[in-house]
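Researcher: Please translate sequence to C-alpha cells.
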Amino acid sequence: MQFDPENNVVKLCAQGMAAEGEPEKARLYFQQAWNEATTNFERFIAAHYVARQQPAIADKLKWDETSLELALTVQDEQMQEVYPSLYLNIGKGYEDLGDFDTARNHYRLAESFAINLPEDGYSTMIRNGIRNGLDRVGE
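Model: Translation complete:
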C-alpha cells in the first residue's frame, strides 16, 4: 500500500519512527499525528503508530483495535493489504493477555486476509508472524 509522503500525518509518523530510540519523543510525534488526523485513513495510520509506543499490553491492544476499526471504514481496495498486519497485532495482544481463543480467532482472520499480500519480504514476515502466532496458541 502506498502512503503519500507529503501527508502531514504520514510525515509525523515517519518522524516518530525515526525517534523510536527515544520512546517519549516518538510517542509525542505519534500523538500529534493522532491529534491532527482529519480522515479515518489518517486516524488508522496514527492509531497504528500510537499503539507501538504503549507500555501496557491492554493499552496497545486498545489502539490496535482502534486502528483496525478505522481501517475497516476506509473504502479503498488497497486496505485489504493492511488487514493481515492489523489482525496479527491484535492477535498478539490477546495472546499476551492470555486470551488464546480470541487470539486464535484474530490470527485466523489475519491468515484469511494474507492472500491479499504481495510477494515481498514484508509480507513474508507477516505470514510467518501469523503462522507462529497460530502455533503458539495451539492451532
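Researcher: Any highlights?
Model: Residues 16 and 26 are 4 Å apart (CA to CA).
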